[in-house]
TrEMBL record:
Protein name: Aminotransferase class I/II-fold pyridoxal phosphate-dependent enzyme
Domain of life assignment: Bacteria
UniProt xrefs under Gene3D superfamilies: Aspartate Aminotransferase, domain 1, Type I PLP-dependent aspartate aminotransferase-like (Major domain)
Pfam family, one: Asp_aminotransf
């Protein structure tokens, strides 16, 4: 049934049926969680050979004893792994601790307090701002909010961020000093940036504040679900446009090996890396080189990166299929929501009818299914349309995910019908 064409009496009958079904589910006292994109235990098991892989041999190539202090920019073998993931030269990579988010926070703080490559620190501007493609990654927005950096929403389309709007804002406001990008399988939309989008992003350094930086969070660089999807090289594009200093790239093994004990990477030009290292020297003696060595050995002795990620895809694919099947079978043709089929990454982005997302999340929570809060994918937690919900299929077992999605679809229907009934009653 198309919700717009239904009469009040038809909607009332439908609402009654849905409410009855919903109340039956509430009696089951479910406790299911699809809030965050965490790897499942089965995925984490793929990397258990990390444990004990060094067998007492803690020396890296060249004789470095990884148990000791030093090595601010990381082991060469770890930097090579990061270079492979980001498709950049090893000399342009710093290998750090377990979290790329930490490196991103450190980079934003460096730009804010000290500036990059001799440029004006952002804190000296009257109103520094980041452009934020939306829906996007909530933790990016948290960094800006904590530092008092303003945020401007940029809609995301099938090619990536709306570049006409990006360029317009940058031309009109010299105090825009950054843009967040998740360029491959974007969190949460699953979009991979097109060649034209990457080229236009690479040209921003020609018109932006000299201190402007693109934060290229390539979190899902190797996280294909099926066939490999190629992301155009931002490094190559900026070199062609003489804007290489405008980009900082990030990646990690957090969803490749063990999520809580991986290795994170930042890649940039020499001047940018020098700016980062100047601050790192005051905050650390060096990263966990033992863990970096473990990862290097794991990907040379136990598996290749590509083979390893195929195993991840084999585990994740049925879960994404489960989500998409529920959405298609339960909602297709009813005009109750929109979604895309991602080719990789960790999320399915679902858009309810405008004004329904919070109601869906609240209904699901009351029924025992935890979802990411409505609005979380927008700066300040404010979704102007109250429509976007991020679904994270990776963590729960398939059986639990199947149940959670059945509840989710029911909640979408119930919230939508109630909203439509309310509108018709107010109108009439």
């Amino acid at each position: 049934m198309q919700i717009e064409s239904a009469s009040i009496s038809q909607l009332a009958e439908w609402e009654k049926e849905l409410s009855t079904h919903y109340e039956r589910i509430r009696q089951h006292e479910l406790n299911l969680d699809i809030t965050r994109g965490k790897p499942s235990a089965e995925q984490l098991n793929l990397s258990d050979k990390l444990d004990g892989i060094l067998s007492g041999d803690y020396r890296a190539a060249g004789g470095t004893d990884t148990r000791n202090y030093g090595g601010l920019i990381g082991l060469t073998c770890a930097r090579e792994l990061g270079a492979d993931m980001l498709q950049v030269p090893t000399e342009e990579v710093i290998a750090g601790g377990n979290s790329s988010l930490t490196l991103m926070y450190h980079a934003v703080l460096t730009g804010y307090l000290f500036g990059f490559a001799g440029n004006t620190p952002w804190r000296e501007l009257k109103a520094p701002k980041f452009l934020c493609p939306v829906p996007g990654y909530d933790r990016h927005f948290t960094i800006c909010e904590q530092l008092g950096i303003g945020m401007i929403n940029i809609p995301v389309n099938a090619q990536g961020p709306d570049m006409d709007l990006v360029e317009k804002h940058i031309r009109e406001d010299n105090e825009i000093i950054g843009i967040w990008c998740v360029p491959k399988y974007s969190n949460p939309t699953g979009v991979t940036y097109s060649e034209e989008t990457v080229e236009r992003l690479a040209q921003l350094g020609q018109i932006a504040n000299p201190g402007f930086r693109i934060f290229w969070d390539n979190a899902y660089a190797v996280h294909d679900l099926g066939h490999y999807v190629s992301l155009p090289s931002i490094r190559a594009a900026t070199l062609e446009n003489d804007t290489a200093d405008s980009v900082l790239q990030f990646a990690s093994t957090s969803k490749v090996t063990h999520a809580g004990s991986g290795v994170a990477f930042v890649s940039a030009t020499g001047d940018n890396l020098k700016s980062l290292q100047q601050q790192m020297q005051a905050m650390t003696i060096g990263p966990d080189k033992v863990n970096q060595l473990r990862h290097s050995r794991f990907f040379t002795e136990c598996t290749s990166l590509k083979d390893h990620m195929r195993k991840h895809a084999d585990i994740l694919r049925p879960k994404f299929d489960c989500v998409l099947e529920h959405l298609h079978n339960g909602l297709a043709g009813m005009n109750l929501g929109q979604w895309e089929k991602p080719q990789g990454g960790y999320f399915v982005s679902f858009n309810t009818r405008p004004g329904c997302a919070k109601a869906v999340v609240n209904l699901a929570t009351e029924a025992g299914v935890k979802l990411t809060p409505a609005g979380a994918t927008f700066p300040y937690g404010k979704d102007p349309e109250d429509s976007n919900i991020r679904i994270a299929p990776s963590f729960p077992p398939l059986e639990e995910l199947d149940t959670a999605m059945a509840v989710f679809v029911l909640c979408v229907k119930l919230a939508s019908v109630r909203q439509r009934l309310k509108h018709l009653h107010q109108k009439g």
